[in-house]
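hey all, quick one before standup. I had two proteins in the batch that finished overnight and I want to keep them in one place so we stop losing track of which output belongs to which input. First protein below, input sequence then C-alpha cells straight from the run.
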Amino acid sequence: MKKRQKRWTSQVRVWSGQSSPSATYNSDLNSTDLLTMLPLEVLEEVFLNVPPQQVVCVCRLVSQEWKEVVDSDSLWRKRCRREGYLLRDANTLPKDWRLFYFLCKNRRNLLKNPKADDKFNGWHLNGGDTWKIESVRVPHPDSTVQNCFVTSYRPCKKCQLIHLEKEGYSPAFMDDVQPDIVISDWYVPRGNFACKYKICVELLNQEKKTIEKFYPPPVVFQSWSVEQWNQMTHVFKNYGRGVRYIGFIHGGRDTEVWTGWYGIRVTNSSIEICPSVDSSL
C-alpha cells in the first residue's frame, strides 16, 4: 500500500513541476507525510493542470482527501472559468459543476457532413428528382459554410440516424441526466422560385419507436422571396427515459419547375448534447 501511495505522490510532483519522473525521495519523508502536507488549495491547483479524465479516473481514487477535492464544485467551477465554459445566466447555477464541465467539453455536432463539404457522405437520400450540391448563393452567417444541399422538383428528403451510445452517451447517462438535445438547421429559398422546407426530428427508444418528435409545419416560400438564410431550432428537454437514437430528416422541394435544382437549400444542420440552454452557452 505504501508503494502505491508513493507512486501516486511521485506522479503529482511530476504534474506540478516539482520533480522529474526519475527523481528520488528523501528517505526521512514518507508518502503519507507528503499527502498530509499538501494544502487543499495547492492540491486543487495541481488537479487544474491534470487532464480531466485522469483527475476523475485516477486522482480521485488515491485517498479520501483527494476524492473530496475532485468532487468539489470549486474545482470544476474554476476549470469551467479557465477553459471558457460560461453561464448564460449568472443567477442560474448548474446543479453539478463537474457534469456541466464535461457536457460543455464534449459538446459537438453529432451529424456527419452537415455543410456538404464531403459530397453526400453520411446522408441517406430518398425521394424527389435527386439532390445536388452547390456553393452558397448568399453568404451564410457562419463564414465557414461554403456549400449547401439543393432540392429538386417533388419532395426531396435526406436523413441520418444517430446511435447515442456509439457517440459516447451511455443509456444510464441519457436516462439519469436527460441532457438537453439541441437541434439546428439552416435553409434558404432561391428567390425567383417558389419552394417548401420541411424538418422532422425524433427521439427513439431501443426498438426505434418514437418517444418524442419535433415536426413543425412546412415553411412555404413564394416566388421572388427574399433570399436570406433562416434558422430552425428546437430543444428537447425532460423527455423521459429510454432515448437511444435520434432520427433527423429534412428537405423540401421546388414547387414550380419540373426540371433542375431550384428548390429549398439546406446546410449547417446540427444535433448537440449539451447543458441546459437556460444556464449555459
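OK second protein, same deal, sequence then C-alpha cells:
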Amino acid sequence: MESRPSHAASPLPRITAILNQKGGVGKTGLTVGTGGALAERGRRVLLIDLDAQGHLTTEALGEDEVDPDLPNLAHALVGKYEGPVEDLILRRKPHASGGQLDLIPTSVAMFLVVRELYGRTRMPESRLARLLEGLPEGTYDHVLIDCPPSLDILTDNALVAADGLVIPVQPNNTSLRALRLLIEQIAVIEEEMRLPRRELYGLVPGIYRRPLSGIAKFKMEELEGYGNPAPGIPALPILAHLPLAAVVEEAWLSGATVVDYKPSHSISDAYRRIATRLDVAAGLSSEHEWTGLPPLESLSADAQNSQGSD
C-alpha cells in the first residue's frame, strides 16, 4: 500500500464506513456525495455497495447490478470467488480534476451473504478487510463503504475494515436510539476482535425538513451535544448538515454526483466539508484546511430560541 506523508497514521487508501443500522438516514446519498466531492479534489475513490438493496449501484450511480454468474462482491466475501479484487471493480470515467470515482457494485447474491458468511468461512467479520488488502498499491486514496441498515455480519465487516466512521443521523427519537446502539456495537467489536479504536469522524444530520419542527430542534440539540466528549464517550462533532433537497434526486437521475450536477448548491458545499475532514484524516490535506472552515450554524432549540425563532 502507498504511504501517506509522515504525519499520517496508516497507509493509503483511507477506508471509511458510512454507517448507521437505521434505514432512511441518508447513508447512500452521503456516500456518493462525499465520494464525488473527494473526486472533485483530485482523489482516487473506490465506493463499495455493501447493501443488498443496491441503492448506491442502481439509483445513485445508475449502474447495473453484477450478474450473479460473474465475479461479484458477495461471492468474494463467502469464498466462492478468490480472484483479484480488481475484477470486482467497475471503472468509471475519470473526473475532470483528475480524480476517480469507481465502484464495487452489489448483486442479487448479496441477499444470501449474511447466512453464508456464518456457514462457510472462518473469521467472517474480517472477510471484507482481507479482500481490500488485495487492492493494488497506489490505486486509491479513499475507500467509502455504503453499509446496510442493520447490525449484522456485514456491518461488522465494515467496522473491521474501516479506519474510521461517518454516521448519518436524523433529528428524531428512533435515530438517536439507533445512534446509542451503534456506539455500543462499535465498542463491542473493537473489544472482541482486539481492534484499534476506530476514528469516529462525526455525525451528519440529514433527511430532515426545513424549517425544523419544535421536536426536531430539541433532537438536533441532543445531536449537537455529542460533540462534547464525556467519560467513556468519544466526541462526535457534527461535520455538515444535509437537509432534504430536490437536488440530490435530480443529480441521481442525471447520473452525476451533486457536486458535479450543481457545484454552487449548499448541499455540494456540505459534501465538500465532509470530504475535507476525510482528506485530513488520510494525511492528504493539512489540519488547518479543516479547522479553517467557517463553523457550522447551530440548529438546536437553544440557538433558535436565542434568535427569537420558533
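Flagging for whoever picks this up: The two ends are 52 Å apart (CA to CA). DSSP finds 13 helices and six strands in the chain.
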